[in-house]
Amino acid sequence: MTRPGYITKIDDIKELSEDDATILRKVEEKFPFRASEYYLSLIDWEDKNDPIRRIILPEPDELDNWGDLDPSTESDNTVLPGVQHKYGPTALMLVSDVCGGICRFCFRKRIFMGTESETVQNLSDDIEYIKKHPEISNILLSGGDPLMLATSRLEPIVRKLREIDHVKIIRIGSKMPAYNPYRIIDDPSLLEMIEKYSTKDKRIYIMTHFNHPKELTEVALEAIDLLTKAGAKPTNQTPILRGINDDPKVLGELLSNLAAAGVAPYYLFQCRPTIGNQHFSVPIEEAYQILEEAKSQCSGLAKRVKFAMSHKTGKIEIIATDDKYTYMKYHQAADKNNIGKLMVFNKNPDAKWLEDYGDPVSESTPDYLK
């Protein structure tokens, strides 16, 4: 059986009209396009606002002059080519510069724009760095998408990490369960690798990236089930995105369906102010209210999600708003002295990032950090 392949040119999408293709080619010149035929098959081509279409197809709004190519200044935390170490317990390894599809709201779109590669160059050096830092207890493999690597290339990375005693958790960040679940279904060697290295005391987590309930198809759920049976722990994160999941009913359905499938809702991220992303960005306080209304429709298991902003200074959780103030705290921080710090800001219904709030009205540090 021939499985669906990949499309990398707008002109190869037969469902697009010539007028639409002409408009989108201009965007494609700046921001590359890539999608699997499987994922494109999920689009309702009669609906211009179809959420799958919005996730994967270019839009003219991407050419707006807004945002930055590295909004979280990942370059500041790069210790070796392809290795970032921002938080003490966690190191990030960029092991691939290819994805099964290019999300139009991607915060690392610089990787796909023909700039210098940011992926791992010398695995031995990277492993040595991790060995010398016993505070690193978990590794996130990202990119690009690690599951775009053949298992024969991914396995040595996982194996070498498993040989480091203080690395307890390996996370694989991947949208392949949504973009091309056949990558998982058709590769028993991937499942064998996970079964071997996801042990009862040191698990492999698959950080899935489902943005909308339509992505949770039967084949996607089959892929998740196979990963789970192999011993992986699937956990989901998604940004909140205008026109995709900014409806409480849609977001609540996504959270509930993930929990029902055994995929733990982990993070709902504030959309990063990356170049080309303005039309996806929802103001922070509006996003908070959407999430709270969505959670009101869900069981406790679906409510585990945290609403967070991946700011250059750390992961900042948005924990509440009231008539006057918005409350945030550092869930994780580059400066460990900030972890747990509570910040109170005057409300700003237009704010989309931390800097939009100005200085906090008050801030306090937990006693255990003093």
**Distance from first to last alpha carbon:** 62 Å
Radius of gyration: 20 Å
**Spans where pLDDT lies below 50 across 5 or more residues:** none
| Biggest pleated-sheet summary | 13 strands, mixed
The 3D shape can be described as globular
Written account of the structure:
The protein is α/β, with parallel strands linked by helices and 370 residues long. The chain has 2 domains: 6-63, no CATH class; 74-369, Aldolase class I (TIM Barrel), CATH 3.20.20. The protein is built from 11 helices and 15 strands. It has helices at 18-28, 37-40, 51-56, 123-131, 151-162, 176-179, 182-185, 188-197, 218-229, 248-260, 284-295; strands spanning 6-7, 35-36, 78-80, 83-87, 90-94, 138-142, 169-173, 204-208, 233-239, 264-269, 306-311, 314-321, 325-333, 342-346, 362-364. The strands form 2 sheets. A 13-stranded mixed beta sheet has the order 3-4-5-6-7-8-9-10-11-12-13-14-15. A two-stranded antiparallel sheet has the order 1-2. A hairpin with a 2-residue loop joins strand 3 and strand 4. Helix 5 packs parallel to helix 8 (188-197) and helix 10 (248-260) packs across helix 11 (284-295). The longest helix has 13 residues, at 248-260. It starts with 5 loop residues before the first strand and ends in a 6-residue tail after the last strand. The model has no long low-confidence stretch (mean pLDDT 95).
